[in-house]
Design goal:
The structure holds 3 protein chains of 3 kinds. Chain A is of the alpha+beta class. Chain A has helices spanning 4-30, 40-75, 87-121, 172-175, 258-267; strands at 128-135, 138-143, 178-181, 183-187, 192-198, 203-207, 212-216, 222-226, 232-237, 250-256. Helices cover 41% and strands 21% of the residues of chain A. In chain C, 62% of the residues lie in helices and 1% in strands. The chains are: A alpha+beta, B mainly alpha, C mainly alpha. The complex binds protoporphyrin IX containing FE and copper (II) ion (CU) (2 copies).
Chain lengths: 273, 186, 583
Amino acid sequence: MRSQRGAVSAWLLSSLLILATILTVGAFFVLKWRPEVASEHGRGVDRMITYIIFAAGFIFVVGHLVLSTFLVKFGGKGTAAYKPMTHKTEMLFTIGPVVFMVAVSELGVLAIGGPVWNQVYTHKPDDLVVDITAKQYEWISRYPGKDGKFGRKRPDLFDDQENPLGLDRKDPDAKDDIVVRGAVYLPVGKGAWFNIQSWDVLHSFNVPVLRAKQDAVPGLTTHTRIVPTAVGRYEISCAEICGPGHYRMRGFVNVKSEADFAKWLKSQVGWFE
Amino acid sequence: MLMRIEAWGREEREPVELPESVRAETWQTLTYLMIAGGIMLFTTFSASYLVRRQSADWAPARLPDLVWVNLAVVGAASVTMELARRGGASARRWLGSTIALGVLFVAGQAIAWRQLAAQGVFLTSSPHASFFYMLTAVHAAHVAAGLAVLLAALRRAGNGQLGLCAAWWHFVGAAWAWVVMLLTFF
Amino acid sequence: MAIAQAVETGKAGHQAHGRDHGHPAGFIRKYIFSTDHKVIGVQYLLMAMLMSVVGLGLSLWFRVQLAWPGKAAMTPEQYVAIVTMHGTIMIFFVVSLALSSGLGNFSIPLQVGARDMAYPFLNMLSFWIIVPASAIMILSFFVEGGAAAGGWTAYPPLSALSGFGKVPRGSPGSGMGQTLWLLAMALFIVSFTMGGLNYVATILNLRARGMSLMRMPLTVWTYFVAALLGLLSFPALTAAAIMLLLDRHLGTSFFLPSGLVVSGQQAANVGGTPLLFQHLFWFLGHPEVYVLVLPAIGIAFDVIAAFSRRPPHGYKTSVWALLIIAFLGMIVWGHHMFTSGMNPFLGKYFSIATLLITAPFAVLGVNLLASLWRARIRFTTSMLFALGLISAVGTGGIGGLFLATATADLHFHDTYFVVGHFHLMIGVVTMTGTFAGIYYWFPKMFGRHMNETLGKLHFWGTFIGAFALFVIQHFQGFGGMTRRYFEYSADYVQPALALNPAVTWFAFLAVGAQIPFFFNFFWSMFKGKKAEANPWEATTLEWTTATPVPHGNWERLPVVSGKPYGYAEGANGDAHRMQNAEA
Ligand code: HEM
Ligand SMILES: [Cu+2]
Ligand SMILES: [Cu+2]
């Protein structure tokens, strides 16, 4: 059964695997493989990803090289003789990968990932607080207005056109709340702490350029923190299936200079003003 | 293809029988696995209960006192089951009593439902009530499975092969004790 | 008969069999309502092939929509339903049926030296429950509102907002389609649980004399671990499904919170917690992916041993790795929920715990690779698929590294990176394992070989197509391309979007490559080259019986005398020793 045909298969498969390895690695150089990044923790996320690319890339490349080599070496016409490994070498080949994997992966998550993760979930006192409400298929943001307080949202007052947040006219906190449909405004370089809620089903507040992603869960307020680092207009793309309109649940985060943001904020009128 | 697998199905009327000792082992494996699965099921429900009770709307209602009587019934059924398992001349009688107690238990649970309903507590009245109705129903299904097995065993009671029936039955009893404790004290 | 029984003492050695009294049974008893594990195994395979036509067809349909928007004659409502049904059908009705149920049924009794499963009637029942389950799943396309459309994960509130009674309607697919989906899944769980019970009882109690646990082929080990894992984790989904059904139809509030407003309609629910469902779902879901992938790896070990003419490297460490994977697999479910709103501390824990699993996986990977060291490889189609599996396990596994790191998952969650990752794992690894197994055992199943030329065509098309398709999807995920989208318009996604036509072409290649397989499968049954009893010179027990395998599997049950992999024996290292060879 070991014939010329076997050797052909060996060469074919091993060159294919090498080609696949080269193409995969090469793709990182050829493609614009990630969106630009415009937030403080986003750089940390990218640092984390880069670290894993090297760790994973090492395993990917070495694994495929070994596989290809073995195929050619032991798949051709040779008559290799199998010898059982000594117990010691065998243990080496077990403990080696275990130590390597645990060290590489846990080191990454503890040393690089952990601090960034904390950054995303720590509310700093002077953060700008923004309230995000999701509903099928729209993002609504809200700022507390001059009083710095958010009014209560009441399901019974909800009206898709007139009152999408269900704010209460009689609630003094709600009066000056600034409500923006389909967009969020942020000053550059300043921390923003988000309170995220949903009226109906799960959604996910996902802004890839800011490397931000946090589900909106009805009945729960979830949080995330973003410090934008560049002025620009970044898309929100819902990242949790929420119905047939999921794909068109878009919005924009407008990051402005501090002065522009202050100007914008001033030009806004409260919901009941 | 029919030709190819002709040989597989050559004989169907006389099934491939396992020797008694091996058969006993497979029943053992089956029973313990099912108990393990059952434990996982009630653990999952319990965990869900403990999570759900964190919500603001949590307001446990008092269960009808009858559930305690039912607990006693199911406990008694475990005792008679043990006596049946010991074997001997009276094993059949004890097994019969176990079945009767089991039926009594299910009937008692049904009455407990009626009592709750009479107080105006329904499945959707409160989360606590939802859990009560759901868990009693799920548990009753396990009791029913146990009763079916016991009925089948009634014929050959007395030759001391009720160990696995007893294991399932004790599991079912313990599960009810656990559910009552959960619903009352947590 | 009496003498034979007297000789065959020991554990399962008593198993009598009625072959001597053989009366040819009727067609129906033999091929339709058969209790023979081999027939049932093939029935499962055929069912999986049938369902794969539906599942793969759906995927090509939405791939056209993705590559050339508007060209597929599809609405957004249909799109989400089709994606949901594709996922459900492929995971539960193709991969599970073909690999876990199909090949498992065929191989387990033969490899442990048993006459049949421990409970043949239960086994038949398991299969016949799958038939209505599959029918209900497919028919759900044709009810009001169409099929379920909340993703294969069926997260509430979307999946709970049924529109029945006082419950508002979340989306068209949340109506009757979702109910039928749950019903079909319930039947599937019943069937799969019964199958798992049978597997464990067979493996624990029906092994041939001399077959200690550490003499079981790795295929059996993986089925064993997978079955236990399934039995312990499926109850969580059962509980979740019961609560979801109550929420949908009877107005309880397990998962539906206070203050819901759906399309302007206020719901009456109070206090439910949607996140609870996600915990329960993934408590099952994560072990379930191992239930699928482990047997594929086990089969690869067996196939690689047979075609590289040497025992697999590190039998013992592989078994330990399996057990550790199973244990860790039950405590890491939260890695699917990093961005779900779960407590961030828990997120950290799940991240750290999940990354530990990469260690036993690396051990399995190294053992697979090292099994080729000093081998004498025979490049059969079966072997090619097993080699492809090694590559896919590695590539998919390192994708897991990215996802399991919570900080990186902020970028990858619910993008095509996840799609690429799990398709490599529960798509490519499982299917290469399944195909390796089918080409390997086909001669034992039907007494004929599959055609090797068509087989190679099948392999190259499948492997090139699937590898390219799913690796490119990883890059789309790097680009932030969100999953389950009918159409894309954002600026940032444009570079990733440009890759979509390529992905679709590779999908056509991978799916098209199944055509020679289907043809080969049925053609070879009747016209394939006749096979001897042990055409691959393999050493495990299934190759010690005649081909075609008689009812009851052996005239005389084998008695095991050694390790499963008696390759590279003799002075020149080119002899082999059957597992039941005289000592
Ligand atoms: C090295 C081991 C692995 C690690 C560390 C790992 C990690 C992960 C993580 C963290 C996710 C969640 C990603 C997200 O939703 O953002 C994920 C998703 C997934 N993984 Fe893995 N994985 C590994 C191996 C596997 C294997 C062996 C399988 C299957 C046999 C598998 C199947 C899946 C599936 C089906 C999903 C996605 C489910 C969905 O969201 O629809 N993974 N994996
Ligand atoms: Cu969405
Ligand atoms: Cu997982």
